[in-house]
Amino acid sequence: MSRSQALLLFLVLVVGGGLAIGYVTLPGEWYASLIKPSFNPPNWVFAPVWTVLYVLIAIAGWRVWDHELTAPQQFWWGQLVLNFLWSPIFFGLQQMGLALVVIVLLLLAIIGFIKVTWKSEQVSALLFLPYLLWVAFATLLNASLWMLNAG
């Protein structure tokens, strides 16, 4: 497989997978009925932000794959699984507490990825910084929604 074919495969997997999961688990009546914190963004913000982040995630994954970096690849695959699990748990199962556990683990996997790539593949680490910031915000949002709507 050529490098460009591999990059395309990573983009299709991550962007396509993320958008497909987002489409299947669109926020519905349940989410609309939740009490939201004051900092909750409007729904239209999520799709463009995640699309950009998924492109960055795919490029970072391709780079660590291309450089044959084992530990970063393990963190990368781990974060992708956790990322793809969150929406079905939060929106599909409507389990905000379990989703909070998943997103905290996702945050830790992102931090782990950045840490293990910082010296060996700094471009990939830098590509994950916006992702880290967004998931930290999403973790706060998930926790706030859970606390405001528990019981």
From TrEMBL:
One of its GO terms (cellular component) is membrane. The chain crosses the membrane at residues 44-62, 74-91, 97-114, 126-148. One of its GO terms (molecular function) is kinase activity. Coiled coil: none annotated. GO terms for biological process: tetrapyrrole metabolic process. Gene3D superfamilies: TspO/MBR protein. Keywords: Kinase, Membrane, Transferase, Transmembrane, Transmembrane helix. This is Sensor histidine kinase.
